[in-house]
Design goal:
Blueprint: E1 26-28, E2 35-37, H1 51-62, H2 68-79, H3 85-111, E3 115-125, E4 128-136, E5 141-146, H4 152-158, E6 165-168, H5 173-177, E7 181-183, H6 185-198, H7 202-220, H8 226-244, H9 252-262, H10 269-272, H11 281-286, H12 288-297, E8 299-300, H13 303-321, H14 326-343
């Protein structure tokens, strides 16, 4: 009758945890009293959990969005490994400390970038208002949790000598930090549409503003010279200035025109700089995951919670941008951190059995 093949994919049954006892010899110098403890490449310097437990704890919290109590339940259900919610937290904190060096490397890459998208949203720290900032380039994403929403934060993260272009919304912290900005067209078009719905005078202004933007997009699809871009920029600026000069009664439309005028030097940066995007969608998209987590966790408890939150989120977001496996990368940074710690330790003395 023939053969009817059918492929069935299955995963192995959950494996129980492996428990290994490391007998570490201890020595004390008779002269100075310095104590030396032998090391082993597979034995962590602190805690009782290995690399896989640490990596899975961090990933369960920040990728699967599980509470620490549920993370502990998952380990027990799948592997028979008993640990508390507090232990899952400490394991995640260890992952963050191990990955902090890579976090600083991401910061350095962003500081050296030509274009950085920045945005911020609120978050609670011990019930008090704080802010989580995102700094995003094509290959890197950095989160920073701060109690400030002012220009001191981008100055701290990017450095006061940052020479690149900042793509942002209209928040006052950005022009206070840098004069090289690209204001977000997605924001101003939404505000223009909203003003048009509330006030009749806004309808022609919204359509004119949208027409300017669409015409620029179409024109920039061509391979323009520097001179052509500069000329296009001048023409578009005159069109924006003509909008600002319109006489309208007080209300949403007057407020809109005030915003257009306030950002007049920053709406058209993308016309002269091909690498600059006219919208800040990249940064807004980067804030979606922290916003979802905010709804789940409610508040960060303290500085340690802020440290873990910004570090692990930054690592996972950057690795995804670069097409890397977050679990394998977490294992790598935790393992590397253990090796670095041992490299700075006093060498162990080997003795025969």
């Amino acid at each position: 009758m023939g053969v009817s093949p059918r492929l069935v994919e299955e995963i192995p049954d959950p494996q129980p945890p492996e428990v290994t006892q490391y007998n570490r010899h201890r020595y004390q110098c008779d002269s100075c009293g310095t104590e030396t403890v032998a090391t082993h490449p597979d034995c962590p310097d602190e805690g009782q959990f290995g690399v896989n437990v640490i990596a899975q704890s961090a990933l369960s919290r920040y990728d699967h969005r599980l509470p620490y109590r549920k993370i502990a339940d998952r380990f027990e259900q799948l592997h028979g490994l008993e640990l508390s919610g507090a232990s899952a937290w400490h394991a995640t904190e260890r992952a963050a400390r191990a990955g902090r060096c890579e976090y600083e490397q991401i910061r350095q890459e962003i500081q050296d970038a030509d274009v950085v998208h920045i945005d911020e949203t609120g978050i609670k720290r011990d019930g008090e208002q704080a802010w989580i900032w995102t700094f995003r380039t094509a290959q890197h994403t950095l989160y920073a949790v701060r109690e400030s929403r002012g220009s001191d934060v981008p100055a701290e993260v990017l450095g006061e000598d940052f020479a690149g272009t900042v793509v942002c919304d209209g928040w006052t912290a950005y022009p206070a930090f840098s004069s090289n900005l690209q204001r977000c067209w997605a924001h101003i078009l939404r505000e223009a549409e909203d003003a048009a719905e509330k006030q009749a005078e806004g309808e022609p202004i919204y359509h004119a503003l949208r027409q300017v933007y669409v015409a620029l997009q179409v024109r920039l699809e061509s391979d323009l010279t520097v001179r052509e871009r500069a000329n296009l920029q001048r023409v578009a600026r005159r069109e924006l200035e003509s909008l600002i000069e319109r006489s309208v009664p007080d209300g949403p439309v007057a407020t809109l025109l005030g915003k257009i005028e306030g950002g007049l030097d920053h709406w058209l940066t993308f016309v002269g700089e091909p690498a600059v995007s006219p919208t800040n969608n990249a940064a807004e998209n980067a804030l979606r995951e922290p916003v979802v987590l905010r709804k789940i966790i409610g508040t960060l408890r303290n500085d340690r919670g802020m440290f873990v939150h910004e570090t692990v989120l930054s690592l996972l977001a950057t690795w995804r941008q670069q097409g890397r496996n977050p679990y394998e990368e977490l294992r790598r940074v935790v393992s590397s951190n253990e090796m670095i710690s041992r490299a700075h330790a006093v060498p162990a003395v080997e003795t025969p059995e």
